[in-house]
Amino acid sequence: MPVFYGTEVASPLMLGTAQYPSPAILAAAFRASGAGIATVSLRREAGGGQDFLRLIEGLGVPILPNTAGCHSAREAITTAQMARELLGTDWIKLEVIGHTDLLSPDVFQLVEAARELTAQGFRVFPYCTEDLSVCDRLLAAGCEVLMPWGAPIGSGLGLANPHGLRALRAAFPDVPLVVDAGIGLPSHAAQAMEMGYDAVLLNTAVAKAGDPVAMARAMAGAIESGRAACAADPIEPRDMATPSTPVIGKAFLA
Amino acid sequence: MSGGVSADGVTILGAGVMGLATATELAARGHTVRVVDPALGPGTQGCSWWAGGMLAPWCEFENAEEPVLRHGRTAIDWWDRHAGGVTHAGTLVVTLGRDRQELDRFARRTEGFEPIGSDRLAELEPDLSGRFHRALFFPDEAHLDPRTAVAALQAGLATRGVTLAAVLPPDPGRIIDCRGLAARDILTDLRGVRGEMLVLRCPGVALSRPIRLLHPRVPIYLVPRGEGIYMLGATMIESDRRGVVTARSVLELLSAAYALHPGFGEAEIVELGADARPAFPDNLPRIGQAGWRLYANGLYRHGYLLAPAVAMQLADHIDTGAKPEFWHETDHQR
Asked: Which residues of A are catalytically annotated?
């Protein structure tokens, strides 16, 4: 199971808590998924009351607060500090949004915020792109986990750049890597796990499905399959057929 | 004066939509009823004041559980009978060009609509003509002005001799707690879900029925209240914070309204409002017993849609002892 900052979590599925039809369905989806971590947005949800945070705490899963909706390093740092105070955790999923339409990370502000938060004792989970040099900078800033996007948040497009994600895995074999955002289907999640990613973080694909609980279960199954497949050392794809029965004695060279 | 069935009658706590609907249903069945509310009536202190007033069970089914659809259908007739002022014009659901999938998803998850094209849309809402090429029309839905509606209930109750007091009388009889979010002192898993709304005056845009604009991030609805007045709502934020509206919510709501029709750029902002809706974890209403009182609560964003059904279940329970469908077993008294 994935280990983040020395803590092993119970499942490679990290599940968001926004946009469910009701808290009861949210809780049922968590039970069905066996998710190892619950992410929660501080900016929108906790605008005064703490009822929702209490509900999330009631899920009995470690909480990873995020800085969703922050557009600058300064905002993200303030939100992280508020999260630490409210939830008593130094874990923070660092999200600094660069472009409103794509909700893509502002990688410059991201690195700046990661450096500052690490200095303040936070354990930073940066929502980033799959760009190698950005990831290098994040590690240099003190991050011990990377969370590249699969595709824009909520788009359900899956892994838009599988080659880049594979290259990132190869470049940082020892860093815990999480595909965060863009997952729409269980096959997308399985693909990330098959590539050797340590975990998958998703929200909309489950919360906005017609039956969130059934989709949560489907995601959990796919993630387990992908993880098992990766551990089983899958074969390499190749262009030529390799027959599974011997061909000696047959005139295949004729 | 109506003849009381029980000696002491029934005292209802709370003069929001739930309390007044319950009082109305009980009074209509011949019970002696009192309503107790420190504000002596509906007003800005309660979330009923800030509601949209859409009687839209088919649309709400997109994101709500089945009882909302089944019981919501009875609401339109109930409001017609007890308050009047219901406009039977249906609901239109539209999306902007690049969110077309949202309309398909909405259609897959709802029923009771006609998919319509430009021509029919132009007939129904000429001001939206040419702006949208596809829409869903829910012909059986209706809407009302919530403030007029609760005022009508209050007036109806007064003619039946129902008294409204600020404090609990010494001999209250049977008590039904309909205090909404204020009942968190006895209902521990009640939470607030914040909603923000605007009232606009925009005589330049003529719309005759509620319009829902689907959007992955900022879905809005506009409910016409006549004479160029529109209610624009509403955010859904997991927070019990009340009072002021945030700049972000105003920006989002107004941007969406402007995208629906640029004429809203000329609107006057008449009101900004925010409150918190009472909700239980499944976002469905509950009727139950908390210590010595009955309660009805947790109508969430379906106050006007579900209050009639909850009131009827409460009245049946009082008349016959029947267990309400929304009955909740746990005793919430601390």
From this structure: 93
Q: What is the DSSP letter of A177?
A: B
How many Cβ contacts (< 8 angstroms) between chains A and B? 56
Domain boundaries along the sequence of chain A: 3-232
| Region of residue A182 (left: phi > 0; alpha: psi -120 to 50; beta: else) | left
pTM higher than the cut 0.90: no
Residue of A nearest to B300 (CA): A22
CA of A12, closest CA in chain B: separation in Å?
A: 27
Say whether A154 counts as a known binding-site residue: yes
DSSP B244: P
Q: CATH number of the domain at A3-232, out of 3.75.10.10, 3.30.300.20, 3.40.50.720, 3.20.20.70?
A: 3.20.20.70
pLDDT in tens, A185-221: 999 999 999 999 999 999 999 999 999 999 999 999 9
Position A79 scores a pLDDT of 92
Which residues, including other chains, have CB under 8 Å from residue B307's CB and lie 6 or more apart?
B17, B18, B21, B22, B75, B299
Mutate to test the interface with A, among B238, B245, B299 (most CBs of A within 10 A): B238
Residue to test with chain B: of A26, A51, A59, most B Cβ within 10 A = A51
The ipTM value here is 0.81
Q: What is the pLDDT of residues B166-204, one digit of tens each?
A: 999 888 899 999 999 999 999 999 999 999 999 999 999
